[in-house]
Predict the 3D structure of the following.
Amino acid sequence: MSFLLPCPNCGPRDVDEFSCTGEVTVRPKSSPTARELRSYLYFRANVAGVQREWWYHRDGCELWFQAERDTRTNEVVRTWIPEPASTPAAQ
Amino acid sequence: MRLAPQPGERIDRGNTVDREGSIVFTFDGRPVRAFPGDTIGSALFASGQRVFSRSFKYHRPRGLLCCGGHCPNCMMTVDGAPNVRACTVPVAGGERVVTQNVLGSLQRDLMSVTDKIGGPFTPVGFYYRTMIRPRWAWPYYEKFLRHAAGLGKVDKHHERSTRFDTEHRRAEVLVVGGGSAGFAAARKAAAEGRHVVLVDEGPDLLPESVGDAGFEIIAPARALGLWEGGLVPVEAGTTLYRFRAEKIVVATGATEQPLLFPGNDLVGVMLPGAIRRMVDFWALKPGNRAVVVTADDRGLEAAEKLRGVGVHIAQIADLRHERVRQIAAKGKRGHLRSVELDGKQIACDLLVMSGGAQPNYSLLAQLGAKVEYDAARGMFVPIELPDNVEAVGAAAGDIGPTAVPAATYNGAAGKGKCFVCVCEDVTDKDVKRAIAEGFDSIELAKRYTTVTMGPCQGKLCHVPSIRLYARETETDETSIGTTTARPPWAPVSLGLLAGRLHEPGKRTSMHHRHKDLGAKIMWTGSWRRPHSYGDPQAEAKNVHENIGVIDVSTLGKLLVRGPEAGAFLDRLYPNRFSDLKAGRIRYGVLQTDSGRIMDDGTIARLDDDTFYVTTTSTGVNAVLQWFGWWNAVWRMDAEIVDVTGALAAVNVAGPKARTLMERLTDLDVSNEGIKYLDAVQGSVAGVPCLILRIGFVGELGYEIHFPTTFGEYFLDTLLEQGADLGIRPFGLEPQRVLRLEKMHILVGQDTDSESNILEANMGWLAKWDKDEFVGRWSLEYVQQRDVRENLVGFVVDDGIVPAEGTQIVQEGKSIGRVTSSRWSPELGQAIGMGWVPPDLAHEGARIAIKVDGKLAAASVRLRSFFDPDGEQLKS
């Protein structure tokens, strides 16, 4: 991992400045079944291809943003600040 | 001895008639003179030294071969640093140069017996076959091998003398290699107005071209690899440049390849580049009578150069025009004496061999370029370059007309060792043996024979070994293929990769006062904190009896402010904060959606919109990220600010704490004025403070937060004003005793990645009537599945303090574990906390703890050992 990641605030920066917390997951809306909960907590798509991820500009502006990155090539398709969710659980 | 001044020579002879040089270094204890501009290698050669090292396995004498920093032949220990290539290291004067890998001396190396005896200790992989029996003898074998193997010795007692630095740099165009193609590419890009940096290994860089190049040149420097995103680490002595380049031009040139024939490692056998550098740079005469065998123009150019300085050229064999079947170099004591070409003996002391040049494609291949075998020229060329990378010059395959040399020139007689790899002393026979033993792929054969795994990393042996492999397996180079190119491309010291020693130690604003007070300082995460001030037991006791003060500036401190701050915290914590009254405090535990406890702390509401959140000392960064992440999801109207560094904090605790507070503030500090769990802002000792009345250590206590700059003054004032009350500072160790007496958990010590608040006996925190909070669903699941273990306290009979981490056992099986344990001087008991099965999680249950192989009996306690009803705390 040595690519550049464009922070929506700061522009392209060394990936070392960021923390990645993995792919964007869908949080259940309310009272999930055990299966839904397990799937949300422990299962990931782990795609070989373009994936939506959460990134944090740890050594920079401390912004949380999302990125689309190709997990095979580390090509970053785009980064953006996510829109406010209509309901908190909709993320 | 030097030649007459050569045009463009690198050495500075000054206006002296001195023919030996003006600066001095020592070589194996004897002084050697050099001119400014010399390298250690060139000065040694000028002084008459011909043997520079002994080879890896056979300890054969070796002399200058490439003079370009690639081959292992001139590796020496310079000022304690092993494996320095003397041929490229400039002389500064005063160096202590020592030969390595010899038993005895360079001239008479006792280990060279391995070259003579042959037998079981010489073929490749011998140690796999001969040193396995008898089994008991392995330690002796190992001792012998450890001593014999490896090159150079690391001086374990050598003090850190070099400071390494990492520098982050950018360039629009980074040119790797300063040959003519690299320079042309750099000039062109610079003329287009682009920001260009050129890095070069140094030896061949033309000094006159450096002056007004119009772009930055870093030399001597080596690009270690190409990584994704245009990252190019460049080693330049004690600095590692991490270049980010928009475009990378690889102009790494080509490496001259040796020919394979018996005696091809004798002292006096050289590559054409060595001739060129020796004559042009340092005015050295490489020999007196030379034979040249060449597959390309490089050998002819070398011959021309030699002629120009008075070397007699006895024979030139141009492999492009004449067929040579057999070459054999013969010598005496490792020095070349004659060459036999197809049966014809030619006396000589210099043999220039050129097996063509192999483009240096490694950097390109690291980034994904493919490599293709060019059968017409007998070399591998890079194809399909990655984006933003360009190859120019010889690196791209522009190496001139070349004959494809034979795999070996052993001929029928084939006496003497024919080296495929001079670094690791691997002969053609070793390669044939590996093939016969079934190592049928180049990658496997590489690992078995160690060809390409020596100091040159394949620069001189990769292509010849593939060629030999193709012949022996009766296939071709394309089907054999290359081994994987990996960084680093050039040798690099571990110190440079490690960089400067970075151990950031955070100190509180009172740190130096603690030291003045005799504190024993310890690491807690990245913080430096007082373990104690010499007597932890007495310090703990003093908190119970009088008054103690502890620096808790390390606590994480976050301000959460905004109209929705309360609602935000309600969603993050299992309990409720939106209904917390301004000026009041509540304890909170953060948990993940999987229900795992991640941090704890107190939350004070300062006003309607503002909450002051404290976290554990080591958890603040994780909590800050956690809060930020959830608010990136929820986008609630609340801002989060980390004020950890801005505010210092002390905890003043003990029965006399109120008396001290009365002396320091006009605030009403009575039990009604500042109640338990009140948060009050006001002036203490003239300093604006936030006073949190909480009790981590169990006694009446005030946690006072104030601007960091007042740290020393505030602590001084407390100690001064409380002197007659018996105030003493206390450290982390007494605090751990005190909190254990109260059964207050330490997240990460008493909890782990499996712990949830239900099983940690903090189920009361969960407010189930709230709509939602992080981790709720997992807690519901825990409720359904029933608790599996509980965190409880225990008192050990007979006052035995079990080690933390000890097993709690039942009928010989482990059923739980001790997480905290201490001797409590206040209670006169050995107390602790640990995890036990639910059926033992009741007051008075008997458990057994394994201590030193025996069982210690203990009784479970569910309520805090000290002041279970909190009467002292709330007094």
